[in-house]
């Protein structure tokens, strides 16, 4: 009888130990997930606010998870492979952030184009006798988004008591643009040393127009290289599709065997390296 009691108590203690260990792992994973979620939502929220996008970061996070799960299911159903389940899940996870990045980049490109017009408006406003904050308010009212949004935010910060120089630095930090850095630097220096600020704005506008002209020329000259990068990047996938259509049995070992999984992983790694070096070659900064 005593042996039976000891036996069951020992099993109970072992079970309790495993249960506590499992619960500790669960709590650690849950805590890590909460911290990651909070950091992700905060980072995405800052990016959405910076680009004046009226979208909830919590909803963005939920859509990211749904996209990852949905793409993972599609990958597994199409290829019946755990590797493609993970690969498609990763693609689905990063697709919303890629969309956000592309939207932010298009907005930044539009801002660069509108900066020249903003400089001419600033120059004319200062020549008419307005102060720099008043000239910035004219830009926010006369021009269209996104440049009007940025100067409108600058004006609102000034109205809330932020010093003009600090508000300019906040705008430069928010935009992270070389041309806007030139504008902010020119304004700050002119406020300290004096000078014809209207003429400085005109000269700066002409310089930025020349930079944009050179960038457009470089983009035209490297158009063939970018097309070659697209063709070379898509060729492995097109070839795999053709081979799978012609002879599915020939491609099955790549998806259903450990050796095939290793080959696909190595091929994907070299493909990513090739894309990285191609982008380095064709992307030229002015």
From TrEMBL:
<protein>
    <submittedName>
        <fullName>Tight adherence protein B</fullName>
    </submittedName>
</protein>
<feature type="coiled-coil region">
    <location>
        <begin position="197"/>
        <end position="224"/>
    </location>
</feature>
<dbReference type="InterPro" id="IPR018076">
    <property type="entry name" value="T2SS_GspF_dom"/>
</dbReference>
<keyword id="KW-1133">Transmembrane helix</keyword>
<dbReference type="Pfam" id="PF00482">
    <property type="entry name" value="T2SSF"/>
</dbReference>
<keyword id="KW-1003">Cell membrane</keyword>
<keyword id="KW-0812">Transmembrane</keyword>
<feature type="transmembrane region" description="Helical">
    <location>
        <begin position="6"/>
        <end position="33"/>
    </location>
</feature>
<keyword id="KW-0175">Coiled coil</keyword>
<feature type="transmembrane region" description="Helical">
    <location>
        <begin position="229"/>
        <end position="247"/>
    </location>
</feature>
<dbReference type="InterPro" id="IPR042094">
    <property type="entry name" value="T2SS_GspF_sf"/>
</dbReference>
<feature type="transmembrane region" description="Helical">
    <location>
        <begin position="259"/>
        <end position="278"/>
    </location>
</feature>
<keyword id="KW-0472">Membrane</keyword>
<feature type="domain" description="Type II secretion system protein GspF">
    <location>
        <begin position="119"/>
        <end position="243"/>
    </location>
</feature>
<dbReference type="GO" id="GO:0005886">
    <property type="term" value="C:plasma membrane"/>
</dbReference>
């Amino acid at each position: 009888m005593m042996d039976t009691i000891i036996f069951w108590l020992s099993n109970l203690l072992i079970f309790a130990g495993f249960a506590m260990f499992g619960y500790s792992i669960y709590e650690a994973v849950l805590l890590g997930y909460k911290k990651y979620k909070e950091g992700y939502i905060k980072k995405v929220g800052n990016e959405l606010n910076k680009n004046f996008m009226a979208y909830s970061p919590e909803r963005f996070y939920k859509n990211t998870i749904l996209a990852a799960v949905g793409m993972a299911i599609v990958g597994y159903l199409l290829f019946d492979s755990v590797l493609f389940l993970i690969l498609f899940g990763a693609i689905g996870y990063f697709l919303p952030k890629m969309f956000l990045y592309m939207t932010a980049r298009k907005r930044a490109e539009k801002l660069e184009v509108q900066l020249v017009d903003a400089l001419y408006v600033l120059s004319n406003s200062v020549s008419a006798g307005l102060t720099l904050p008043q000239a910035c308010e004219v830009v926010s009212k006369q021009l269209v988004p996104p440049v009007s949004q940025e100067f409108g935010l600058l004006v609102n910060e000034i109205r809330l008591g932020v010093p003009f120089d600090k508000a300019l630095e906040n705008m430069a930090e928010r935009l992270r643009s070389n041309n806007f850095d030139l504008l902010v630097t020119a304004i700050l220096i002119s406020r300290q040393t004096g000078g014809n600020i209207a003429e400085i704005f005109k000269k700066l506008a002409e310089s930025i127009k020349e930079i944009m002209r050179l960038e457009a020329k470089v983009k035209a000259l490297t158009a063939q290289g970018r097309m070659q990068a697209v063709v070379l990047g898509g060729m492995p996938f097109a070839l795999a599709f053709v081979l799978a259509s012609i002879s599915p049995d020939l491609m099955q070992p790549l998806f259903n065997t450990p050796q095939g999984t290793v080959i696909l992983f190595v091929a994907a790694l070299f493909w990513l390296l090739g894309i990285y070096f191609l982008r380095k070659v064709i992307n030229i900064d002015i």
